[in-house]
Design brief:
By secondary structure, the protein is α+β, with helices and mostly antiparallel strands. The chain has a domain of 73 residues. 43% of the residues lie in helices and 19% in strands. The protein is built from three helices and three strands, in the order H-E-E-H-H-E. A three-stranded antiparallel β-sheet has the order 2-1-3. The longest helix is centred in the C-terminal third of the chain and has 21 residues.
Length: 107
């Protein structure tokens, strides 16, 4: 996982990072059995793999229980939709999302 210390980010990037983390929190609240996932650049996937459209794709998705293929696909679509919306609103967010792993926080 690639991390960026918040104190080193300019104020605009801090706002984008806060938006990223709030949207990731929504994903984890909605997908109760999701434990974590990684977002990778679709240029990094093999040609024969089912990947993204030149943007980011979900990899290494983990659940706390066994899920059906349909559930897995639904969660991936939801993550992809959330990420696509975020990047459409804030193009700079792609640099904060690429090659990052997001995991559920347990308290």
């Amino acid at each position: 996982m690639e991390t960026m210390p918040t104190q080193n980010l300019d104020p605009q990037l801090r706002r984008i990072e806060a938006d990223v983390f709030s949207r990731m929190a929504v994903i984890f609240r909605r997908c109760r059995h999701l434990v974590g996932f990684t977002l990778q650049d679709s240029a990094e996937i093999p040609d024969d793999a089912d990947g993204g459209d030149g943007g980011l794709f979900v990899s290494d998705i983990q659940f706390s229980r066994r899920v059906s293929e349909d559930e897995d696909d639904e969660v991936c679509r939801y993550i992809n939709s959330t990420v696509a919306d975020l990047v459409a609103e804030r193009e700079e967010a792609v640099n904060l999302l690429r090659d990052r792993t997001f995991a559920r926080t347990l308290h």
